[in-house]
User: What shape does this take?
Amino acid sequence: MPNYKITITPLQYYFFGGEKHDEEYKTNYFVESLDYPQQTTILGMLRYFLLWENNLLGGKALSRENQSKAKALIGSESFEYGEQLEFGKIKTLSPLFFTKEEKDYHFAPRDIHFTLDKNFQLYHKEIPYNAKDHYNKIGSHIISADGETISLHSIIRNVEQVGNEKAEKGGTKENAFYKQTMKSLLPGWSFAVYADMDLDIGSEDYTVQLGGEKCMFRMQFKKIENIPTVKYYEKHQRTQKSIVCISDCFVDATKIKELDFAVTDYVSFRNFRSKITTQNYYAFKKEQNINNGMVRSRRYQLLKRGSVLYFSDESDRDDFAKIIEADSAKNIGFNHILKN
Assistant: This one.
């Protein structure tokens, strides 16, 4: 079965995720893009691309024969947490990472620039950690196999956009002002994932839309023999047993509170869902009828990539790791970890 490295390069600014509507479906007019796409965004892009490549777009308007073909190609519906779903020819996705000039960078532990003593006290240059003084040193970093560490925010820029929404002719729209913070990647950088897909895809470049605002990306498929294994970071060796999240993870928050020590952050997650028989993929209404339009999943708080969980006992660490990795969401790039 072919393995691929899929490289996704923004052709301009981009906008991923963020809650544009509250629980009452009122629009939030001050929104900021996430720094990178979530796993379900990548999965959705691939599923749409495969339908487009095989002339199977059309949803409910497709013939029964073509609906059957679409289901075999990409599965019957979008990801829903807690469900054992299959996505046709897409067997697995890796966690998202960054790449530049064929050099790959995965998410580093959040406390990579610190040392940790036997009493779980963090130190930065022999000075005990103080959130007020050192908050900017614990953050999102990426790291290569040879140990090069780069701050994520040094390669991602904010792009501010403000405006007023137009009302229908002759009308006045309340709360029309909006402000969006888009993002852009420095030249030469790309997002990437590894994928195991039962398909033969050419190496040509494809142009795709991804995320909000109809932003354009260049997508490239490169066949590879084996999907590389991410190894534990030598620059982050600890005497304590630990788990590092190299993807966002669905984890019971109450279990985190029971740990000896952890350096964590969380990210809000919610995805749009549809079926191959959904009537209108552009409709998003309060009724939340998946047969008529897109629907929203529940909102979850995920343990963010780079979070580190520490354990006094190796068996406790292994038991915790088994719980994380047993989650069915691992197949599309969630709940991937490294153990020390």
Notes: The helical segments are 39-53, 64-74, 131-134, 253-257, 314-325. The radius of gyration is 21 Å. The chain has a mean pLDDT of 86. DSSP finds five helices and 23 strands in the chain.
